[in-house]
Amino acid sequence: MEVVSRKDPHLREVVWFALRCRALTLLLQALFNLLIPDHAADAFSPPRLSQPGLWDVLVEQLLGGLSRWDAEHFLFIAERGYLYEHNCAFFPLYPLSLRAVAKGALWPLQWLLCVRSRLLLSAVLLNSLFSALAAAALYQLGCIVLQCRRVAFLAAILFSVSPANVFMAAAYSESMFAFLAFSAMWQLEKGQSWLSGLLFSLAAGVRANGLVNAGFFLYSCSKCFALQLQVGSGSVRKLPLLWKQLLSVVSSVVLMCAGIFLPFALFQYYAYVRFCHPGPSLEQTVPKPLVQLALDKGYSLAAPNGVKPPWCSQQVPVVYSYIQDTYWNVGFLRYFELRQIPNFLLALPVTLLGSWAACTYISANPRHCLTLGLERRRSEEEGKPRAGFCCTAVFVYVVHATVLLAFGFFCMHVQVLTRLLHSSSPILYWFSAHLLHEYEPFLWSEGTADQTSAPRSEASLQGKPGSCANPVVRLLLNCRSITPLSRCILGFFLSYWLLGLVLHCNFLPWT
Questions:
Q1: What interhelical angle do 174-189 and 193-204 show, nearest 10?
Q2: Quick count: other Cβ atoms within 10 Å of Cβ 97?
Q3: Residues 6 or more apart from 467 whose CB is under 8 A from it?
Q4: What's the rounded Cα separation, in Å, for the pair 427 and 391?
Q5: Helix crossing, 427-439 with 149-159: angle to 10°?
Q6: Nearest 5°: phi and psi at 208?
Q7: Distances in Å between the alpha carbon of 137 and those of 14, 168, 169, 252, 463?
Q8: Sequential DSSP letters for 110-178
Q9: Which residues contact 373 (CB under 8 A, 6 or more apart)?
Q10: Is 301 helix (H, G, I), strand (E, B) or coil?
Q11: Alpha-carbon distance 282 to 301, whole Å?
């Protein structure tokens, strides 16, 4: 992917703004981590087995805020592998990438920094790169799907100040997943099915919700088949030709979905071999402090002569679902408790925004939604938007975001919704940009309403030459004069960004 194009100053601004926001994030987390004492949280915190040097202490002081909560799991897996059973809730591609950078690009620093410090530094470098690439991919995707360059530009700028920003910077897999998912969606829109399938497959090796992306292939193939059937609806079609087309569609879907599910299946098999049939030398290689931690906290180690975990005897032994059920109590309506009301309040803004986006799209395209977008449109309806958030191409993305929203609200720890949706779906960025584009007069003066009916062509996507001034910066500089709706949107994005840095980096509960 060409990240910065001389022909497109908007793309250049997206990338540079993403990098500047990441630098500001790193600066603020270091400041907050130094000024605010860490909370004594009951979180995974393995003992340090090597004596830290002067440079290790400096790295911890500057970047330690990025190693809180689940980041400890990723860093531990990158250093020690899947030692404890509950580590298997975290998929391997991201920690493997951290290990590769720490052992490869940062190998010359081994005389100054211990392995953990190099892993933490690797996380900062990789996440800075992935977040900038994800913003660029989101912009390219928006240009094709929305057919409105200015809305796509605004959405990509909003991505850099995402409410999930702290997780994009910390040693979490959100940045890597967002880059792979948005890039795969972009390639699929361009017709690059095999490259898209590869990227979706890699995304499934980063996070479990990457499996849901198989729906994009299923819908794309189903839509192509349905539209092909309608082309010759006025003539008698030959049955052998129909069966041939159907077989081609089914085989393509099966192959692509199998490729997406393959990383998940391989990882479950790896966990089964490691914890259900461990080798005799495994127990001897575990350092005593880590064995003691397992005894103190009740963590399960792979024991050659011990009792096998309960999930090993299941007909389909899947460690991931067992961990979610046993360690985190994840399940349908399990989080609906009075003591979880604060977490539901944390998830309220993203829940309202996602629901509003779905309702807006359905009300603008009722027939298209009822027919699942499989009906060929013979002519454009009068008054129907041909570009922007309400265009027909957005349908599958709305369905994807709504499925994630519903599943997360009813079946997961609800506060996770903020980072789940903002790292997996472009919808919240597109809808927020749509609202600002439609209802903020300060953006009208930039000519943001002049490209809402462009045909789907590369020439129209380039837009008119002119200024690519950052719209978010412009709104912030005129915050006293913008509309209440714009204040709410920017307030949600920026307040969650800053609160996330203050709370998460000091082991305080956050999303």
A1: 160
A2: 19
A3: 446
A4: 13
A5: 120
A6: -65, -35
A7: 10, 15, 18, 25, 18
A8: GGTS-HHHHHHHHHHHHHHHHHHHHHHHHHHHHHHHH--HHHHHHHHHHHTT-TTHHHHHSSSSHHHHH
A9: 219, 223, 392, 395, 396
A10: strand
A11: 10
Q: Report residue 33 as tokens.
A: 């981590």
Output the pLDDT for position 448.
Answer: 38
Percent of the chain with pLDDT over 70: 88
167 residue type, one letter: F
pLDDT at 12: 93
Q: How many CB atoms lie within 10 A of CB 314?
A: 12
447 band by pLDDT with thresholds 50, 70 and 90: very low
Report CA-CA distances (Å) from 102 to 108, 116, 121, 148, 416. Answer: 10, 9, 8, 41, 29
pLDDT of residue 307: 75
The amino acid at residue 283 is E
Which residue's entry shows tokens 């699942």?
372
**Token pair recorded at residue 187:** 């390639």
Q: Per residue in 377-396, pLDDT tens?
A: 654 444 444 688 999 999 99
Residues with Cβ within 8 Å of 222's Cβ and at least 6 positions away in sequence, in order, are: 249, 253, 374
Q: Which tokens in the block code for residue 119?
A: 């892993």
Cβ-contact 127, 169 below 8 angstroms: yes
pLDDT tens digits, residue range 125-152?
999 999 999 999 999 999 999 999 999 9
In sequence order, the β-bridge partners of residue 84 are: 301
